[in-house]
Records
---
Amino acid sequence: MPTDNPKICTYVTPDLKERLEKLAQDEQRTLSNLLAYLLTEALERRGR
């Protein structure tokens, strides 16, 4: 699905990528959607 949202690129270890992909699959999310959710959640916990 096309989006106008900006792109953020990062490097992670193969193990972390595998774990994130498994979590995304378990939650029926795309990896991108999971990462956006986790980042938003982390910022909200910090009051940002």
Note: Helices lie at 14-26, 31-45.
---
Amino acid sequence: MTLLPIYQNLRARILECMGDIIGTYSFEQGDIVPAIAIDDRGIYPPAGTKVQGLEVSIIPAVAANSKPLIGGCLIDHQSKLILKQWDSAGDTLEATIRLTGVLGNRINIGPRILPVSSIGNIESRTITFFDAQILRL
């Protein structure tokens, strides 16, 4: 059994509540899609992709613990939501507020890393998301 459906559901919920502020990925072949991805290998978006506006990366199960149950197990896991604002006129504040509404008290909000124009970095913030699932065996 995989946790992927959980993250696909989370992606859909985030897109529903933040669709109007999420930026875009423009791929080399011309496709343009919302800039939200489940990225468990650190390779998305692929090289050559242009990112505009707010990007949301969901990094699944960066830490997990399991507890045996009769007929299954309980998995407590932590995941990361990484917000990156590629627009110098934008920020991550509205996205953070909206994510708090979607995820409630199951998150730990990291510091807002502000852009420094002299080194050309972007504004970013990491949010740790805590969840638990019962997996039937």
Note: The mean pLDDT is 89.
---
Amino acid sequence: MKIAISSEGDNLSSNVDSRFGRARYFVVVDTESMNYKAIDNTAASSAGGAGTKAAQLLLDEGVDSIISSNVGPNALEVFQAAGITVYKSINDTIEKNVKEFKKGTLEKIEFPTNNGHHGEH
């Protein structure tokens, strides 16, 4: 399974970024092999619509699930329409979040966890 995690850095020992649309990176991990790649979140500097743009970036990567904390309504709607499950991260490293995901202990996010920022900074 291919999962994407919002991250402050570009490797498995990086901490999770609690923001989704404005996260600096997304670390995409193959949960079977633990191979990963970091994607620079080009949507982070968008004036508006960062969550939706970031969601599209990850859809283009073909991810199966997302791990983050604060996901707005527009991004969540994109994922739900695509059949991608979003999970709430724990405040720890990317690697630890993947381990918890594999154990099935992460909570599903079914409703927006923030209201979006509509271009605010």
Note: The chain has one domain: 2-103.
